[in-house]
Write a structure and sequence with these properties.
single chain, Chemotaxis protein chec, globular, 3 helices, alpha+beta
Length: 158
């Protein structure tokens, strides 16, 4: 009997469209928070404004990419104050934000691509800065208003 070796086959993902990613975020946040008003503000065309809270998730493997989630402190406080029906036991607002961003990225990956074809490695959320972004324009970039809190999400695919 011959042993088989698993190989990472090349994978060319379909490119997400900003308004569809925003729609996923609306569904995701309504599920995660159980109540929320989310308004799609449109695609981002200009250089980003200064937003003090920024998280990113990178994944590698046969599909590689990066999502950047940006907001103000008001959104993070809103998350903690309105956590919905789920008993969430996070030690801090930052832990809650990290969990939300990581889960949203997983939701996007599972809804845009066939996860059984992907080998992406761990989904880890970490703080990041503008200097860590890829130099190319994002493949998808949009802004939302979540309960009056501005949010920006950008996606780069390699």
């Amino acid at each position: 009997m011959q042993a088989t070796i698993e190989r990472l086959e090349p994978f060319t993902p379909a490119m997400p469209i900003s308004h569809i990613m925003a729609n996923f975020f609306q569904k995701f946040i309504k599920y995660w928070m159980s109540k929320s008003e989310v308004k799609y503000l449109g695609e981002l065309q200009e250089w980003p404004v200064d937003m003090p809270v920024e998280r990113c998730v990178r994944w590698n493997g046969n599909a590689r990419g990066m999502v950047v989630f940006r907001c103000y402190e008001g959104f993070v406080k809103w998350l903690k104050e309105n956590k919905g029906y789920k008993p969430l036991n996070f030690g801090s607002e930052n832990e809650m934000l990290n969990e939300m961003v990581g889960l949203y990225c997983t939701y996007v990956i599972n809804n845009f691509w066939r996860p059984e074809l992907l080998k992406i490695g761990p989904i880890l959320t970490k703080p990041c800065t503008l200097e860590e972004w890829p130099t190319l324009s994002p493949d998808a970039a949009f802004s939302l208003l979540v309960e009056g809190n501005p949010v920006e999400i950008r996606l780069w695919m390699d």
